[in-house]
Amino acid sequence: MRFVFRRLLKAPLFTVIALATLAVGIGANAAIFTVIRSVLLTPLPFNQPDRLVGVWHTAPGLNFKTLNMSPSLYFTYREESKVFENVSMWNDGAASVTGLAEPERVDTLEFNWTALPTLQVQPALGRNFTEKDDSAGMPETVILSHTYWQKKFGGDPAALGKRIMVDGKAREIIGVMPSNFRFLNEDPALILPFQVDRSKVFFGNFSYQGLARLKPGVTVEAANADVARMIPMSIQKFPMPPGFSVEMFKQARVGPNLHLLHEDLVGDIGKVLWVLMGTVGIVLFIACANVANLFLVRAEGRQQEMAVRAALGAGFGRLSREMLGESVSLGVVGGLLGLGLAYGGVQLLKVLGPSGLPRLSEIAIDPAVVVFTLVISIVAGMLFGVIPVFRFGHSQLGTTLKQGGRGSSDGRNRQRTRGLLAVVQVALALVLLIGSGLMIRTFQAMRNVQPGFTKPEEVLIFRVTIPDAVIKDPEQTVRAFESILHRLEEIPGVTSASLANTFTMSGGQNNDPVFVEDKPTPEGQIPPIRRYKWVAPGSFRTMGNPIKAGRDIAWDDVYNMRNVVLVSENFARATWGDARNALGKRIRERPNGTWREVIGVAGEERDDGVNQPAPSVIYWPMMARDIWDDKVHVNRWMMVGVRSPRVGSQGFLDDVRKAVWSVNSSLPLANVRTMKKVYDRSMQTTSFTLVMLGIAAAMAVLLGIVGIYGVIAYSVTQRTREIGIRLALGAQKSDVTGMFVRHGLILTGVGIATGLAAAFGLTRLMSTLLFGVNATDPVTYLAVSAVLILAAFTASYLPARRATAVDPVTSLRSE
């Protein structure tokens, strides 16, 4: 090993280039593996997490692949299950806290009393909810997160038993969670009980999320089978919602869709990460090919030395071990440098990574990552080191010694291995370039989509909630919201302000069936599910979403509780063929409900993200009569939208706060952000994938072009005598240049042909990440190929020009 390191130190340029190439390739792999390990492979921080499942359902009769939990199913599973050790419901949410300092809106988790026992987690201080705490009409209680306890009470144990005002109601603090408690991707300040009244539960209401712990030895498949057995029991146990029949829910074909809870955390990000892992794996392979080419050149320069040593008794094994010792040593040192690059990359990812990436704060290099890096470093060293070992085997050393080291032109056979490596580099670089090109086309297609709003950087949104403990009367609640809008409109620079329970892509969904008067649903069937939104007058103008036909909701409609609605353009087209045909038609939310007249048609909203189809939406006035079981339904938590060119300045936000607090000083502003941030978040996964693929493709192309350049440059060096003879015999300089350029383009052409075939199959693996472009898009394939050919031509032309500078006399005299 001393001999190996001494030789490497005597060739500093070779060593530095090889180490830098390897560090980049290995570091990229180590960084992505760190993310994959932290996000995908690390189990949830609970006892026996492989027994925790998310309780989901499916309803193919309603075109629902995933359907949430309902209270009726929760009670049925608790009472009838043979496979669940425990089952519970949960939801994320937010609540207003007053009386501790300035009013604030904090994130919450709603748990029933079985949730923490299901997770097998105990509060660090105090106690868990009991069945009594979770019963309707019982005193209000709350459990604090450790962070919130420290922030508001300074970690004082005397906080237990105190009361805080949550949404206008006094709640007793009964516990504090452990400092390391994390539930999926939630970071709540408060945990609240549901207090569901079992006597008022209907079948349906799939508005909750489910969680269960399987009994020891029970598989997810067995649990799904048991849930399928219990769903019909629930239909029989609980009454149907008013106007619905048992037959309707049978037509929906509600079924089980349980899976490990870990999948609820990871979601679809796993597909992106595995694609990126494959991408950086290709980069490492290209890096190895590049270093192998360097080793070939180095080994050829040492042929005379190795031949002498072989003649003095060194066997093939000894010489091979030495060459492999150099390559593996370089691999390991490159891996250590790569580990440093990976650490820097992970820290950068934490700062710049997409907020939708789960467990982002937990991503860290651990011993498993170090072992992984060491293994791929050794494998990489063996990979690029074994090629020169076999290329310059013992059988060739005698021949080399007989030639006496005379300079001679390098024949085609001597170029074949380096050419093959260059072809591999070009092919793999092309695959990555095509993948990057497809993501660029996807990004462009998404940017061209009309999302349902305009100039999002000029729209500020935030949530305001008026609990019934603050204002009980529904009409007075609406008037308070209207007063807030008027105060906001008085702010200098504000052009409009309005309300909705949720704006485009801002989160929060309500989905329910819609019955159409002139399109009756067959008896016993539930009509298609549509999205419901509750809006105030002017919400479409504030967002920049045009009214395609008819008119907007007016304040008179709200206060007089007129039976009117708006619908989205795609709902109007699907139901009546044209937007204008929808005007005057009537719909309702349940079979025996009140008919509502369609007074307007709004433009479509890409509510699930710009890469998803726009859902059909029904827009209800924010206060309405006879909705579901409510005589008067009013939305008490609304999202406020304010349009102004001043959005983004601190002074403007201060003006907005003053305007809201001038109406009621106990109303906190929650989740304050611009629509631009909402829009960018919908693009985050695509942007993240595009940047990562772009970096990988750039590295791959650079390494591939360096490989082509190296092959041609070395060929020029080795064929100096041949070039001199050609020039002496009258060959034109352009002919000599063309000879080497053709060589480079032939290698590139073979690499491109191979890469196109590989890309045709491999890019299908990323089809779920694409939007508006096919995985085999010919424009991308042709454009990328043309760019690579141009780059390869440049890489071939530069060393080829040097060939024309050869002096024939000097070249022949050296012989």
Molecular structure report:
Strand 24 and strand 25 form a beta hairpin. Mean pLDDT is 86; it is low at 404-411. The chain is 49% helix and 17% strand. Helix 9 (269-301) runs parallel beside helix 21 (684-718), helix 14 (412-447) packs antiparallel against helix 24 and helix 15 runs antiparallel to helix 19 (650-661). Strands 16, 17, 18, 19, 20, 21, 22 and 23 form an eight-stranded mixed β-sheet that branches. A six-stranded mixed beta barrel has the order 4-5-10-7-9-8. It has a four-stranded antiparallel β-sheet with strand order 15-26-14-27. It is elongated. The two termini are 38 Å apart. The chain is built from 25 helices and 27 strands. It has 815 residues and is α+β, with helices and mostly antiparallel strands. The longest helix is centred in the middle third of the chain and has 37 residues, at 316-352.
Low-confidence stretches: 404-411
In whole angstroms, the N-to-C terminal distance is: 38 Å
List how many beta strands DSSP finds.
Answer: 27
Q: Please work out how many helical segments DSSP would assign.
A: 25
Going by helix content, strand content and strand pairing, the class is alpha+beta
Q: What is the helix content? A: 40-55%
Largest sheet: 8 strands, mixed
| Quaternary organization | single chain
Mean pLDDT, to the nearest integer, reads 86
Rg of Cα set:
34 Å
- The gross shape turns out to be elongated
Percent of residues in beta strands?
A: 15-25%
